[in-house]
Structure formats: C-alpha cells, structure tokens
Amino acid sequence: MNVFISYPKEELSYAIEMHEFLSSLDITPFLDKKDLLPGQDWEAILEENLREADLVILISSRKILERSGTIQKEIKIIIDAIEKHPIGNLYLIPFRVENVHLPKPLSKAQYFDHFDDDWKIKLIRALRLKATQLKDKSVIKSLDKKNDELNAVDKHKNFIVKKNSSYRYNIEAFYPQFIFKNDDYWKYINSGIEFKALTCLYENVRFFENWEIDSDTPEDIKSEYYLSISEFYCSGDLFSLSGSYQSYAVGTMHPNSGTFSLNFGGRTCGAFELRDLFGDNEALANQLLDYCDEDVQKQLALEEEDKDHIDNWSIREYLSPDFGIDAWRLLSHFNFNEKGLTITLSPNDIIPHVLGHRDSFIPWKMIVEDIYEDFGGTEISKLIHRALS
Predict the structure, then answer these.
(1) CA–CA separation, 30 vs 383, rounded Å?
(2) Residues 228 and 325 in one domain
C-alpha cells in the first residue's frame, strides 16, 4: 500500500513522525524530504507519487489555508482525485496538528488529531479499512500486529480495548478507565464510559449478525465498526469526554461516521445532559439551535461552499417531535470546558454527509443567565461563574 504524505513546510516534523510510523507497518510512505534523490525532478516525482498513491495523509494546520505554492498544488490534485474515486473508497485522511476546520471537499473526510493520545490506533484502524478495500493481506496482518502492540501499551495507561470479531465483521471499542481512582464517584464515571462503549459494541454485533451479505462477497471483506472515547476536558471532578465511531457494512456505498459525548459535572451533579443544565427550557433550546444553524451557514459561506449544498438547508429539517426528536435531542452531542460549550453536528445524525462534521462554539457568557437553578451549587455552575468573573 502506497501512502503519500502531504504537508505545509512549517509542519515538517509531524510529516517525518508520520513517515517513520508508516514505515514500521509494512506500508510504503512517500515524503519528499525522505524519498527524493539528489538530481531528480522533484516536482515531477512529487506529482507522480501523489497521483499513484493508494492513500493520502494530509498534515493539517492553519498553514494549509494560508500558504501558497507546492502545498496548494498538492491539495488541488488531492481534490481532483477525491472526485474520481468511487464513493466509500477511502482516499484522504486529514491529520490535524492543531484545531483547524478544513474547507470542503477536504472536510468530507473524517480527520484525526495528533493531540489525541490514541492517534496511532485511530490511524491503524483507517489504514486497515483501506488495506481491506485493496485486499492487501500482508498489510492487514502487519496492522493487526501493531494494533495489538499499541493496545498492550495503552492498557497500562488505563485504556481498555474490547474486540468482537467473526468471519462477517470486525468490531472494536477503545475507551479509558480510571483504575487508580478508588472512590465511588470515579467508579461511577468508569461505569458510564464502559456502559456506553459496550452498548455500542453489542448493538453492532447484533446489526452485523443480521446484515445480509451477497454470496459472491470475498471472505476477506468484512463489515467494520470502530469506536473511540477520549478526554475533551478534565479539571478536578469535572469531566467531558468526546466519542466518535466509524462504521462500514459490506455492500453499502460508503462508510458512516458519527459522534457522541459524555459529561460529568462533579460530585454534586454527576452525569448531565444539556437539557438538564438549562431546565428543559424549550425556548432556549430553539434559540441555541438557531445559533448553531446560523453558525454552520457562516462556516459554509466562508468556505465558498457550492450553493446547491446549502441553499434552503437548515438543521431544523431534522426536528421530528412525533419521533421524540426535539431541539434538545439535536443538541445532545456537546462538550464543555472553562470557555463554553462545543456543540458537535455529525453527518450520521443531523447534517448532510457532504458537509462533514461541524462544531459550533457557544461561550458561557451567552447562556449563563439561563442555567437551571438546581445546578446553582454544583461544580459545573461554579466553573462557569469563575470563567466569567
């Protein structure tokens, strides 16, 4: 499997780190600073390797939006290749080294972050999906071996990996457990995390067991489901976790991805949903929904999105009270820190697949007056008021 590493020159150190990691996986990476020979026509060789690559990893920071030159030429070739690849054929993996929102069509591809402790495991899962599409058994074997090695290390870092596989599917859940905490509150957090992870795991076991597969499907092509839960914010007993998943059912046109969250507001609060924090205030929920809707529209406008994708589109299209989908339900994927709330909208839930994942940030100062009185003495309420003092 040939992997091309594209990067802005300011992020060369991350590109070299990626090259070294891929080289350990029975994969052939191409990085100009490592693989070009003296005297070669570097521009022609670069373009040739990019066009022939099975997969592209784009080292992503604000510099790819600001820089001109080689990186922009590479991005144009990548975008052209994306349009030519069949739907569902994994081609581009953005690797964010800072929190940056990618323009379309780069944003269609699910990114992963260098600042996540488990980024290597997430990358291996994506590489395995590509190797499966290529039917490259030697790479699959190498990736599985490396995955087991990394998981063994991560268990000592209080990470748990659960697997459930058969001849029909591979399912994996990766999540933290705080085994060094002995009090009931952290046992409660551990149980909430594990319950969420294992519920998703077994729901997908049931789904894939009943998924009909064409009789002529090769034996080495399997359905895949990978889930990961990681820390978004932690301060004292305040804890916010973000979760993501990738799923592919054999025979479908493209993979799906989505997000979820778990939030704990301290010992005087426990786990909470956004509707709890604001007392199930329906009017506020609609205001927040309108804010997120407008924010996403602004993001798309700044990216000069194709108007066909955004004209007459609204998050409100996904409201369905008859099926229990109200405004609070659409706002249910959220995380918090000392600055405010981050609402995550994902394609598998409430946003068109073509628009990718979208985050909408809401500062505490906009909503502090609406916090439900029952939260007045909780740690989460104190965090908010400290942030504003």
Answers:
(1) 47
(2) no
- The verdict on residue 145 lying in a domain is no
Provide the domain limits for residue 262. Answer: 158-271
Cβ-based neighbours of 124, under 8 Å, separated by 6 or more: 25, 143, 146, 147, 150
* pLDDT tens, position by position, 43-73: 888 888 888 899 999 999 888 877 777 778 8
Q: How close are the terminal C-alpha atoms of the chain, in Å? A: 54
CATH at 83: 3.40.50.10140
Closest CA to 126 of 54, 60, 194, 71: 54
Is residue 305 one of the residues assigned to a domain?
A: yes
**Residues 351 and 268 sit within 8 Å (Cβ to Cβ):** no
The owner of tokens 């942030």 is 387
Q: Is the distance from CB of 261 to CB of 240 less than 8 angstroms? A: yes
In this structure, which amino acid lies at residue 213?
Answer: I
What would the two tokens of residue 6 be? Answer: 């594209």
Q: How many CB atoms lie within 10 A of CB 348?
A: 15
Sign, CA dihedral 353-351-169-241, equals positive
Domain boundary among 271, 301, 328: 271
pTM above 0.90, yes or no: no
In the chain, the largest separation of any two C-alpha atoms, in whole Å, equals 71
| Tokens linked to 354 | 């073509």
Whether 124 is covered by a domain: the verdict is: no
